[in-house]
Amino acid sequence: MQKTLYMIGGTMGVGKTTVCQVLKKRLNRAVFLDGDWCWDADPFQVTEETKAMVTDNICYLLNSFLHASVYENIIFCWVMHEQAILDGLLSRLDTSQCRVKCISLVCSPEELERRLARDIASGKRQPEIIRRSLERLPLYESLNTLMADVSELTPEETADWLLRA
Fold it and tell me: CA 28 to CA 31: how far, in whole Å?
């Protein structure tokens, strides 16, 4: 059995987690890791120490999933707005026995702002997320990934696109 590792990036609020949850249900023997789960702290602090810690956590878990015989599909999502982030993770993963699909979810700035505003209104995010996420959005254009414009796609339609990619 050949495994597939889905590395799904995108800026905050584009819909990565929701899409990955749908994808997990549509794939056989699938497991899902959201990179944010490896770094859920209050206060959230970005330092060299915490960046190294989260990378170690992600690589440990992904390698464990890759080596586990019960999983055929491993789904990972995280912001990954720089090629160095994606390359750094992949360099530490044992992908010798699997296909790797690197995908970036993008959308129009207007749609991103609409999605984030909905999260802010429901109390899931703070207002400053809009500026930070919009600043990262254009960075995905330079990545060596498949691009999925999800501006007008539902999570289910996006999962269908990912299965065909």
Answer: 9
Q: Could you give the number of structural domains in the chain?
A: 1
| pLDDT of 27 over the 80 cut | yes
The three-state (H, E, C) secondary structure of 134-159, written as one string: HHHHHHHHHCCCEEEECCCCCHHHHH
Domain CATH for 68: 3.40.50.300
Distances (CA, A) of 65 to 14, 53, 76, 163: 25, 18, 11, 20
At residue 30's C-alpha, the angle toward residues 82 and 5, to 5°, is: 35
Q: pTM of this prediction?
A: 0.94
State which residues form the domain around 160: 3-164
- Contact status, residue 3 vs residue 99, Cβ threshold 8 Å: yes
